[in-house]
Amino acid sequence: MAAFFFKLTGWKVAGALPNLPKMIIIGAPHTTNWDFPLAMNLMFYMGVRLNWMAKKEFFVKPFSYLWDWLGGISVDRKAANGMVGQTVMTIQQRAKIVLAIAPEGTRSKVDRWRTGFYHIAHGANIPIVPILVDYGRKTLTITEPFIPTGDVETDLPLLQARYKGIRGKNQTHF
Known about the structure:
The protein is an alpha/beta fold. Helix content is 33%, strand content 20%. It has a single domain, classed as Rossmann fold. Helix 1 (2-9) packs across helix 2 (35-46) and helix 4 (82-93) packs parallel to helix 5 (116-124).
């Protein structure tokens, strides 16, 4: 069914996810709410259980059952250890997890992304796998894993450089 969706819509997938038990996938640019169904379809297409985070208020019944089935992870943004700390703990408690995050700040043109995804990956000691969501070419490109060093000032520009020339749905260039 997922392959049919891609064929019908003209989207292509380039590359493959690495065979790792734990990783954070970042998908950018995130310029439209249509990115979520596109990501869910990619999950089914690749046969991977993908997890994603949302504030706990999003997980209300009866929809919470659907969000759980689709890999949602509820987080309390007001918790003492914060969203990053909660997510690191969740990752450490699991043998396998593929967590998808859209770096905040990508819904409009920004020079620098917010870095929660980076701190989660570094804190959990897992790689970041960038996926380029290019609406101009209708291609989802999975790139090589990036190992965060802990030096966000050096690493973030290297990650963002992978997205040079990528076109979001609602912006001209990233």
